[in-house]
Write a structure and sequence with these properties.
Structural class: alpha+beta
Oligomer: single chain
Number of helices: 16
CATH superfamily of the largest domain: Nucleotide cyclase, GGDEF domain
CATH architecture of the largest domain: 2-Layer Sandwich
Helix content: 40-55%
Radius of gyration: 28 Å
Length: 396
């Protein structure tokens, strides 16, 4: 038995269980062969590992969330194409659910929380849909996958609500347009159209993954595996208060933050950073926080030596909003930390000093209306000069 971080995909055919009671054994077997002929080439093209089939259901493992979701979208588009060509009795509809997490591989079977979660998510989905967990959402390439948030759901077998998402359908311009606009299916080279009379005669072969071929494909797949492992590892190593904040669960974040305060004190660098993060998230969500309080907490966190707060302020110093850039410069100044000099210099460089006004008219305009600049750069230059001029405190 070995443990690996994988994306678990579960597929389930609509109405198959009910159909088995009214169809002959030969008709049931033919439907399963048709199901396999439609799905298997697509799964193989995206590097999916089909671990087992339970009647009409597949359990498939993937290394990368983006490839798994593209595969799921490709499956739905291929089934929709087949449905337009087939008689009603031979149309196949499936619902698909995905979750990311550690799984235990034991021979020909797989176990783990990701499998259990995917099964719970599948119960929420309708036929033709692709639903997935929050862990998949945080690690996928959202520039390639259109996403709809489905909110927090209480699902059977889990104590806490889970945040769920689904792949957004495309707007059909004409009858027969693929429901997911071919975002996955167009990547599968050499796949013949699902003509009903040819499907069961066709030999299902493993298709090359859309990443490429030969050594290049192996390098690309390895890179995807490393990327997913790193992204998933990043998420699950965040402090609980930060995870809850990023998920918009502010009360849960506050509870975790109170625990940290009890252990480390209110002026601990990590506590101040997380408090600022929560305050800014609440402000952005209109849930009662203020930007100024958030930036003050981050400034104090930088003074306490917290690198995450320094990174956060440097990032805000590059914001498109003038107020955020000014608040970042002010917080870095108030930290009195020489570690802040790099971020201050970056803010200053992004907004060079204004040229001196030429003539009395220009000076009058500048005095009355200002120069139209944000002023974050000037503030950052003043702060950098003050910090650089200050004598470093002696170690005691």
């Amino acid at each position: 038995m070995r443990t690996e971080s994988r994306v678990v995909m579960l597929t389930d055919m609509k109405g198959f269980t009910a159909a088995t009671s009214r169809q002959t054994r030969e008709e049931n077997a033919r439907m399963l062969r048709l199901h396999d002929a439609l799905l298997s080439p697509v799964i193989a093209a995206f590097g999916g590992q089909r671990v087992k089939s339970i009647g009409d259901a597949y359990l498939v493992l993937f290394a990368a969330p983006t490839e798994a979701l593209l595969c799921a979208a490709a499956i739905q588009d291929r089934l929709a194409d087949h449905a337009h060509r087939a008689v009603e009795s031979e149309r196949i509809e499936v619902r698909i659910a995905l979750a990311l997490g550690d799984v235990r591989l034991d021979g020909g079977d797989v176990f783990g929380e990701a499998v259990n979660l995917a099964a719970r998510i599948e119960a929420e989905a309708e036929s033709g849909e692709v639903w997935f967990s929050e862990s998949v959402y945080w690690t996928l390439d959202r520039s390639r996958i259109p996403v709809e948030e489905m909110g927090w759901r209480a699902v059977p077998g889990l104590k806490e609500e889970v945040r769920l998402f689904r792949v957004a359908r495309a707007v059909a311009e004409e009858p027969g347009d693929p429901p997911y606009a071919g975002i996955g299916l167009d990547l599968v080279a050499g796949l013949p159209p699902p003509v009903p009379e040819k499907l069961l005669r066709a030999r299902v072969r493993r298709r090359p993954a859309p990443l490429g071929s030969g050594a290049l494909a192996r390098v690309a797949v390895l890179a995807l595996v490393l990327l997913v492992a790193g992204a998933a590892g990043w998420w699950f190593t965040l402090p609980p208060a930060e995870r809850w904040t990023r998920l918009g669960r502010f009360e849960a974040a506050r509870e975790e933050l109170d625990k940290l305060v009890a252990r480390h004190g209110a002026e601990d660098g990590e506590v101040l950073y997380l408090r600022g993060l929560l305050e800014l998230a609440r402000a952005d969500a209109g849930a009662g926080g203020t930007q100024r309080s958030a930036f003050r907490d981050w400034g104090r966190a930088v003074a306490a030596g917290n690198r995450a707060a320094l990174s956060a302020l440097a990032s805000q110093g590059r914001s498109a909003e003038c107020l955020r850039r000014r608040l970042a410069a002010r917080a870095l100044w108030e930290s009195r930390s020489r570690e802040a000099l790099g971020a201050l210099e970056e803010i200053a460089a992004a907004e060079p000093p204004a040229p001196a006004p030429v003539g009395p008219i220009e000076r009058l305009k500048r005095a009355v209306a200002g120069d139209g600049r944000c002023g974050a750069g000037d503030l950052a230059r003043e702060a950098a000069e003050a910090i650089a001029a200050a004598r470093p405190a002696r170690a005691r």
